[in-house]
Design brief:
The chain is an alpha/beta fold. It has helices at about 15-30, 50-55, 90-95, 110-125, 145-150, 205-210, 215-235, 250-260, 270-275, 280-285, 305-315, 350-355, 360-380, and strands at about 1-5, 35-40, 60-65, 70-80, 85-90, 130, 150-155, 175, 185-190, 265, 285-295, 320-325, 340-345, 380, 385. The chain has a six-stranded mixed beta sheet, with helices on both faces. Strands 2-1-11-12-13 form a five-stranded parallel beta sheet. A two-stranded antiparallel sheet has the order 7-8. This is Glycerate kinase.
């Protein structure tokens, strides 16, 4: 049996490589002679840089930037092997994992560090950018990024706005006179893992704000602030982006990259799968295993498992998926082509315990799934019992 393992990271606990290794360890307890093809993947969030840099023989560049709460932070980006393309993760400059749960406040966090990474890559000669938006701690519509690249976001008295999503409620004018001129020479692809609009019940603040620390009242305030922002993107820049699919990604960073970088938003998994040559890999295997930290209704909206299943369906291969946890609406993934889905957490526990036990939990559920698969293979489908 030949098995492809194409998993994203389990956020805050395991990298994509660690997820794949744990699943392989569990399966090998049952299928010791199986051949495994490891394809660590990403959909625009954490792991995008390492996946593309590794696949192209590129390099990592370490940079100090403004972190999500304004203090200096160690960050990085990648340059592909041909030296032409910069690969950047918003999460590396303004990621949720850079903050403790007590520090998370999307009313204050900024994407300025993303703009600083872009400027550094421009200095290195890059004019093609792949920017992954997943995993952010921000809700500022990439306003901080724009400010780092020379845009001035001014209040009614002509003062520069302070950092954070709430400050956008005071936006009165956008001034692009000092915007970084080299951006006009660039092609920017944004690896976007969701298709949410900027505003409303399916927008950036309502859907993603709570996981970044926003209370219900803060969600409403952030949505109202982004509405002001959207108004000025259209009025001052001629960029009507609020309803564009993906505009709400990463706290509205999708909208900001569309407006300020003239970006092309693409499903992040599509970019990664092209780099990996994933379709050809899946043609050669018998079983495909995928997964991510939480599998729920959002999974089918551009996340790695749905992308893997789409390719697997095209080449006629069965798919099973593992998640650290399953949402009540996880059954939606069956319509995307995932035959079976399993949660790795086996007992009631705290979030801290689930994160700490992620690897042994995943090994255990992978082993048990493999055992069930072997039992099914052993059963006589004609109803005459199991073969010896």
């Amino acid at each position: 049996m030949k098995i492809a393992i194409v998993c994203d990271s389990f956020k805050e606990s395991l990298t994509a490589v660690e997820v794949g290794t744990a699943i392989q360890t569990g399966f090998q307890e049952i299928f010791s002679d199986a051949e495994f093809v490891m394809c660590p993947a990403a959909d625009g969030g954490e792991g995008t840089v390492s996946t593309i840099v590794s696949a192209t023989g590129g390099k990592l560049v370490e940079v100090s930037v403004t972190g999500p709460l304004g203090s200096p932070a160690d960050s990085f980006y990648g340059i592909t092997g041909d030296g032409r393309t910069a690969v950047i993760e918003l999460a590396a400059a303004a990621g949720l994992e850079m903050l403790t749960p007590e520090q998370r406040d999307p009313g204050l966090t900024t994407t300025r560090g993303l703009g600083e990474l872009i400027r550094h890559a421009l200095d290195e000669g890059c004019r093609h950018f792949i920017i992954g938006l997943g995993g952010s701690a921000t809700n500022d519509g990439a306003a901080g990024m724009a400010q780092a690249l020379g845009a001035r976001l001014l209040d009614g008295e002509g003062r520069e706005l302070v950092a954070g999503g709430l400050a956008l409620s005071r936006l009165a004018r956008i001034d692009l006179s000092n915007m970084e001129p080299r951006l006009a020479e660039c092609v920017v692809e944004v690896a976007c893992d969701v298709d949410n609009p900027l505003l409303g019940p399916e927008g950036a603040s309502a859907v993603f704000g709570p996981q970044k620390g926003a209370s219900p009242s803060l969600v409403k305030a952030l949505d109202a602030a982004l509405a002001v922002y959207a108004h000025h993107l259209k009025k001052d820049m001629g960029k009507d982006v609020a309803e564009r699919a993906g505009a709400g990604a990463a706290g509205g960073a999708g909208a900001g990259t569309l407006a300020f970088l003239n970006a092309h938003l693409r499903p992040g998994f599509d970019i990664i799968s092209e780099v990996l040559g994933l379709e050809e890999i899946l043609r050669s295997v018998d079983l495909v295993i995928t997964g991510e930290g939480r599998i729920d209704g959002q999974t089918v909206r551009g996340k790695t498992p749905a992308g893997v299943a789409q390719i697997a369906r095209r080449v006629g291969k069965p798919v099973i998926a593992f998640g650290g946890s399953l949402g009540a609406d996880a059954g939606q993934v069956h319509f995307a082509g995932i035959e079976a889905v399993f949660a790795s957490v086996a007992r009631p526990c705290t979030l801290a315990e689930a994160l700490a036990e992620a690897r042994p939990n995943l090994i255990r559920v992978a082993r048990n799934t493999a055992a069930a698969l072997r039992l099914g293979m052993a059963l006589n489908v004609t109803g005459k019992g199991a073969r010896s």
